[in-house]
Amino acid sequence: ALPSLVVLAAAAALLLGRPAAAKCPDRVRFQRWMAEFQVVCNPPRNSSVGPFSKASADLAAKEAVRFATRDGATDFQIEMSERMARVATICGWATCECVEIAQQVPVSLDSVTACYSEGVLRGDFTDDQRRTVSELIRSNACGEWMSRIGAECGDCDRYKDERPACANFTVPTIRIFIPLAGSRPGSSPFAPLLPLLLTLLAAAV
């Protein structure tokens, strides 16, 4: 069962160092953000077929195992390659553009739960918009996958190649986008944002 709204709101307040918002401070901008979030992320309505299906994930996993074995990987590395190939395929719709939009939430994090809850009660969001949020927080892996690629040194980190801490990462950045709120090499203010954002949204679902 999902944690209660009260518990998560209190946890968010402690993490952010300020009390959770009781009312959404900007309903209009939050509604526009939700619309953009859905359009850009747009999870598949039917994942039983197509590029994000289990069948596609099985094929990707087999290929990953084949290449890892060929390269002399350990059993653990082979297992991890197989697992990551499955997640990357099933959650392939959670792109860097999707991460960027998530990071542009127009209200402070302590207002997210209130904004989403109020919007649902008023009927501000379409079924597709609510489905996008649900896919990220109820999916077995896609919310976690999105947090991973959006973290420092992740695939979507604009400054990955410039950060000394990322020197041991060999996978090249798959997309570069404009940094938000003055993000610069050496610091990653958004690394903890996505997990907390998804947690706060989960409280309102």
Number of strands: 0
Please compute the radius of gyration using only Cα atoms.
18 Å
How helical, in percent, are the residues? 55-70%
The sequence of SSEs as H and E is: HHHHHHHHH
- Dominant shape: globular
Overall SS class:
mainly alpha
Percent in strands: under 5%
Contiguous uncertain segments of 5+ residues: 1-18, 170-192
Query: How far is it from the N-terminal to the C-terminal residue, by CA?
Result: 11 Å
Tell me the major beta sheet.
none
Mean pLDDT: 75
Walk me through what this model shows:
The protein has helices at residues 5-16, 27-41, 54-70, 75-90, 96-103, 109-122, 127-138, 142-150, 193-204. It has 205 residues and is an all-alpha fold. α1 packs antiparallel against α9 and α2 runs antiparallel to α5. The radius of gyration is 18 Å and the shape is globular. It starts with a helix and ends with a helix. The model is unreliable at 1-18 and 170-192 (pLDDT under 50).
